[in-house]
Amino acid sequence: MRNDGINCAALQQAMHERRDLTKDESAHVAKCDACMDAWLTAALDEKPEVTIPADFAARLAAIASPQQKQRVQTTPRPWGLFTAVVMVAVLLTVWFSGPASMNSWVGLLFVMLVSSELAGLALWLGPRWMRR
Amino acid sequence: MIREHQAFVFRTLARLTGSREHLEDLAQEVFLRLYRGMDSFRGDAKLTTYLYRITLNVAQDEWKRRRKEQAHTSFDDPDENWSDRLAHTSGDAEQFLSRKQGMAALERAIGELSEIERQVIILFHQEDLPYEKIAEVLSIPLNTVRTHLHRGRKKLKERLREGRPACVTMA
Q1: pLDDT score of A125
Q2: Is the CB of residue A2 less than 8 Å away from at least one CB of chain B?
């Protein structure tokens, strides 16, 4: 309590209860750090009143759905996916019908490695491209 | 999802932008950005964290847009001073006693804080988010959250005492 006769605890309780302050109480708050702190906390904790239209969610859903459809329609062709598939086919063709040197175990390993990498890429990126 | 979080989005936008103007449009922008970003959302963060980030970004964009607009207005019409227009116009002490006036003064004082201080204060006080969550949303260390919160509150108290946005200072 300061010498202005105002009880800080009671005042802070009043702030907590969101009561309007009297002139003397307000003057006290301006001088008393603890009360100012309490006033600030109470004021900041208070959620501002906002008006949310009742049909906000429904309207938003209506806007979002056509956008999604439009995005699917304008999806560019997944050239990366096509390229990966073609490259796998070319590599396998080279492996089966290529020169004898390609049929060595080193060549076989190389072709298998590249093929599996490309297939992996296609599997990983394919669904993403298709979804866009 | 929209119904569950729309109150948070509206409230946060209202406090961060300091205005109820275009609130619905801004909230709509938040959810549309979230919707568009769903494809690239990898789930490495919670969806709410992602929504909080988008809300803060939309509020920041709006804030910048208004600043730019204010600058234009001041330039176009030197007699019109925005800070004067926004400042508390009444010197009547009785008016400061009402909670409404106090809250209005506080909102103006919040508007004078830095972007990050405003965000931290609103997420902590208004939305009751813990320090850890705020740090995650803003991608800053935990201690930085504490520092901004402390600094922001200190500035608010100073501003309210100075009476620039007159509030509880009426001695």
Answers
A1: 76
A2: no
Residue B18: which region, alpha, beta or left (left: phi > 0; alpha: psi -120 to 50)?
left
Note whether B76 and B153 are same-domain residues. no
Domain boundary among B60, B86, B112: B86
- The complex scores an ipTM of 0.73
| CA nearest to B23, candidates A55, A63, A52 | A52
Residue of A nearest to B18 (CA): A48
Answer yes or no: do B132 and B98 share one domain: yes
DSSP H stretches of helix in B18-141: 23-37, 47-76, 82-86, 93-96, 99-111, 115-121, 131-138
Together in a domain, B112 and B159: yes
Hey, are the CB atoms on B102 and A39 less than 8 Å from each other?
yes
Q: What is the token pair recorded at A98?
A: 């290529």
Q: Which residues of B touch A47 (CB under 8 A)?
A: 11, 126
Give the pTM: 0.64
Domain limits for position B60: 1-86
Number of structural domains found in chain B: 2
